[in-house]
Amino acid sequence: MTEDYRLLGYVRTLMRVMLVSERTSPEHQHVVRFNALDFHALGMLRENGVVRASGISDALGIVPTTASSVVARLIKRGLIERQQSTEDRRAYDLQLTSEGRRIADAIHTQDLHNMNLFLSALEPHDQAALLDLLGRVVERVSALENGSG
User: Fold this and answer.
1) Would the pTM count as exceeding 0.85?
2) Cα gap 97→77, rounded to integer Å
3) Is 71 exposed, middle or buried (0-12, 13-18, 19+ CB in 10 A)?
4) Per-residue pLDDT tens digits for 112-142
5) What is the rounded CA–CA span in Å between residue 95 and residue 11?
6) How many CA atoms, within 13 angstroms, populate the side-chain half-sphere of residue 76?
């Protein structure tokens, strides 16, 4: 197997475990079924507080209709709410409800737990080297996304 295929296999495994696995701690299992876009949208709202649907679309790299579907699904579940923007009466701001905050915090806590568990396979100096290398990869990906790479 070539190194390209090995790396692709590693990345796919990590993505599957971090994004779509239902193997979470017992108190969080099957609380609400999500897909990866739901996870990302909740995480984005957790980090940013108030976001517009267009911001979700841009940040996740999805078309506006898909972002609208994610937003509608999360509103229906009572995890986010939409309010008319005070800055632009044509736009709507999205934010987490208290239940949405609870779920987003639980997902974040589980993600941190999973990451620490995964990184425990490495010595501290190897963890630092991995973080440095991944940081460089993320910088390159960001530059490519912004058209400056």
Assistant:
1) no
2) 10
3) buried
4) 888 888 899 999 999 999 999 988 998 998 8
5) 31
6) 9
What tokens were used for 124? 């501290």
Pairing of β 80-84 and β 92-96 = antiparallel
How does pLDDT run across 51-92, given as a tens digit for each residue?
A: 999 999 988 889 999 999 999 999 999 999 999 988 888 889
The Cβ of residue 36 has, within 10 Å, a number of other Cβ atoms equal to: 13
Segments in the chain forming alpha helices (H): 3-15, 36-48, 53-60, 64-76, 98-119, 124-145
| CA 100 – CA 75 distance, rounded (Å) | 10
For residue 103, the one-letter residue type is I
CA distance 18 to 23: 10
